[in-house]
Prior knowledge:
This protein is an alpha+beta fold.
Amino acid sequence: MELIYDNKPAKTVPSDIMHPTSRSLFRFWEGSRGELPAAKKQQLNLKKVASILPSLCILERNPLKQTYKWRLAGTAINKLWGHEVTGQELFTNWQDFERQTIANGLDMVIATMQPCVVRFKATNTLGGEIGIEFLALPIQDEKSGAIQILGAVVPFRAPDWLGTTKLIQFEISTIRKIWTDSLPSKHQQTTPADYKRSQNNTSPFLKVINGGLN
């Protein structure tokens, strides 16, 4: 498993974002946010990314504990998971380490207004395996002011069993923060409570872990 952390601003679509759908969403988000740290949710023109909408989702953080739920999930995501996930907890069936690692990464997206890309292996009830990329981007709800996650969740292949069985096990291979701006200071945060929480109640984002996927 590889976890990478740096603070070099991205000038184009970073090479760490591999899937074409993820790269399309990243370009859309960059164009939508302009000079802002996060795109405004209500101002997103999703018609521009109509072809990838089934693979998009919005995640919402529980303000009382470090967990996330699927606020909205596209049809391709529901098919990939093998059931409807909208309204459910994101980390159902995730092991503690995997859950904590991704939660830390998503907390950093909210705290720093910078994207994060995760790749992981998922296993279904029959033992079938599939590689998945998850791009997480910060967006702001103008009504509540809350920072949410706009994401693309896409498999690297489409096996015959896709949509016929549930995913029940997950193993992270890589998680990386994508810096699109210079490292922000505390005073530049639009959500100071989330920033403080991420600094005080989460583990460091950078970890060196032996082993992982071959």
